[in-house]
Amino acid sequence: MTLWKHYHTPSTLDEALALLASYDGRARIVAGGTDLLLDIRHGHVPPQEALIDVTCIDGLNTMRLDGDTLLIGAGVTHSQIVGSDTLASRATCLVESCGVVGGPQVRNVGTLGGNVAHALPAGDGTTSLVALDAEVEVVHQGERRWLPIGELFLGPGVSLLDPTRDILVQFRVRLCGPREATAFKRIMRPQGVALPILGCAAWLRLDEASERCEASERCEDARVCIGPVAKVPARATAVEEALRGAPVDEAAIERAVGAAHESLSPRTSKYRATAEYRQEMVEVLLRRVLPLAAERARTGQAVPEGVGME
Fold it and tell me: What does the pLDDT look like over 135-178, one tens digit per residue?
């Protein structure tokens, strides 16, 4: 089976866009290809006239620190994310989520941009980027601009970007400052299809009182993403509201769990688990993630957990 006829490796963004235009919808963007090539092989996407590999474009395969913001090229691999000391300490959830994608071979070639462009609600990297309130730079309908990451997702596997005409360029992530921290955990099926039952990422900011007295530390702000529970990756706003303004203690976690049960409705999936089981796992994840993020925010110490586990 011929998966494609031509394979291009442009060195600039303009060159990649010109190639897309020249094929007029008969070519697709590819980065690591860990999702796309399987989709073509399994018949979910037809064989392509051409693939345009963007991983050789300067800026798309690197990370650049700009003050408290990190710019991450869409062609940066999961292994590059895991190997970043800056992300490990100041955007820990992203390292923890990228560190459990596939096995080492997949992480070495699979890219963060590909994970997001595939637009699946269960994307591990996507879950953490939503909790980090990331922005994404795209070339869409000929215009280069920044968007909130949530605007990319239109439905399960449906992206705002047309891979035959548009390009995802890079991500912009504000790194955690004092009294801010993140965490990510997921629950996998113990055997069979290697799909996550659920994943959860959280970002917390504690108030300044936490520096003076641990007992008075309160959650000043929170962002939580749990997926897949909806058609698109989205923040669990009711859970966030339950956390704000109170110490991140057992009572707050109980309120967060209650808010999750009332507002989130994971469906039954033959590949993942029943709705009832996944609803219970929401509670398990929140009880793991929220105290961990709060402890990291309180101490200023964050060491990624679970990285490299298959």
Answer: 999 999 999 999 999 999 999 889 999 999 999 999 999 999 99
Hey, what long-range contacts does 192-196 have (CB within 8 A, 24 or more apart)?
193/271, 194/102, 195/122, 195/271, 195/272, 196/122, 196/124, 196/272
Largest Cα–Cα distance in the chain? 66
- Per-residue pLDDT for 189 more than 80? no
Radius of gyration of the chain, Cα coordinates, nearest whole angstrom: 20
Cβ atoms 1, 47 nearer than 8 A: yes
pTM for the model stands at: 0.93
Read off the pLDDT of residues 233-256 as tens digits, 9 standing for 90 and up. 999 999 999 999 999 999 999 999
Q: Whole-angstrom Cα distance, residue 22 to residue 11?
A: 16
Of residues 27, 82, 79, the one with CA closest to residue 54: 27
d(CA 166, CA 28): 9
Residue 41 pLDDT greater than 90, yes or no:
no
Cα 166 to Cα 7: distance, rounded to the nearest angstrom: 17
What is the pLDDT confidence band of residue 191, given thresholds at 50, 70 and 90? Answer: low
DSSP 209-240: GGGT-GGG--EEEEEEEEESSSSS--B-HHHH
Rounded CA gap, 84 and 70, in Å?
A: 11
Nearest to 71 by CA among 170, 181, 203: 170
What confidence score (pLDDT) does residue 203 get?
Answer: 98
Q: How far apart are CA 60 and CA 63, in angstroms?
A: 8
Residues 6+ apart with CB under 8 A from 164: 20, 23, 25, 26, 27, 28, 29
